[in-house]
Design goal:
- By secondary structure, this protein is mainly α.
- The chain has one domain.
- It contains four helices and no strands.
- α1 packs antiparallel against α2, α2 runs antiparallel to α3 and α3 packs antiparallel against α4.
- The longest helix has 21 residues.
- The chain is globular, with a radius of gyration of 12 Å.
């Protein structure tokens, strides 16, 4: 784990806290948290990241989130994991 990954994880947790139940159902928040946790601590959670990407698209399609906001979330979750080629 490095500082960049830790900061990305912090941004994801802040998004979850800020959005809370007003913008995310508990199951949706759990998908995001599970992916961030797995990427940060395990590093190999790309199926979980794909689930976050799918969720982000569903939130945009349902007009619940703006596309930019959803993209930032996906980028932050992805940044919780190791960079390509780094293990």
């Amino acid at each position: 784990m490095n500082n960049d990954r830790s900061q990305a994880y912090g941004r994801v947790m802040k998004t979850l806290a800020d959005e809370g139940p007003a913008k995310l159902f508990p199951a949706e928040a759990a998908i995001i948290r599970t992916a961030a946790d797995a990427l940060l601590f395990d590093g190999d959670a790309y199926d979980e990241l794909a689930a976050v990407e799918d969720l982000a698209q569903q939130l945009v399609d349902a007009d619940r989130w703006l596309a930019d906001h959803a993209r930032r979330l996906v980028d932050d979750v992805a940044a919780c994991g190791p960079s390509a080629g780094v293990r």
